[in-house]
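Here is this case:
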Amino acid sequence: MRFLWGGHSLSACLHHLTGSKQASVCAEGILSVTTKPVLTEIGAIPLPQETHSCWSCGSMRAAHFCESCGKVQPPVPVDYFSFFGLPRKLNIDLASLERDFYALSRKLHPDLSASSGSNEKEQEWSLEQSSLLNDAYRTLKDPIKRTQYLLRLEGVEMEEQSKTATEQARATGAMKKQIVPPDLLEEVFELNMQLEELRMNKKTGDDAPALIEEIGKQKLTLEAKHEALVEELRTHWKSWDSLIEQGQSGNAATSEERAQITSKIVDVLNRRNYIRNLVRDVNEAMEEGS
């Protein structure tokens, strides 16, 4: 379900900025939303009411540029979902997100401000808005990044499982903090022993075809588990979205209900990330010296 401003999507409003009856309808639709307090990214503190008026012509404005005069507005500290006029749901319409991204890009691009004779402050705002737009789009279009971002908004930080963290640990000799799924402990121990044996064999020039075949089988098993975890994650996305829809209908979920779902999401993400890294380690070990 799309989040609409006054019954109109962001893309529809962007296509009719001035001079038409449809444009005035869009402007009125946005007005019905922008008169409400705008929330900051984490603290949910209402911004001053005057931030809703265009700095140039004084008209009530949309979040990013004025519907009346088209001037880019000062950036306001909103989360990525709010930037695109979306509720904090994990299943989103990617085609609509892409359309809104390109529509906003055309309105907020710094080159447009420079070519229209805007002053230095306007160009600075345009640059900031464009940067926020790009960051928001890159995050929301990727389902895993979108999930991790929403968890941060909910006050949940993931364990560092990235390749960067692995490389830093190897470079410094420090232990990388990571969670080994209990059901994988024995399998992971055996696999790590085999990978270490494979690395030693490659250094001595031993191709070890039987060992490579066995590791390859384990890799296929891990990839199947990874796909199963992605499917499990999708079920939790649906549960989270149901809570959001419940809140939109006036029956807000309790903090305990939200925490129950985010806890399940974190558990699946940790297992999924760990297995993804194992597969990556297998690929690197099998490619070394080949």
Notes: Residues 14 and 104 are 8 Å apart (CA to CA). Confidence is low (pLDDT under 50) at residues 1-51.
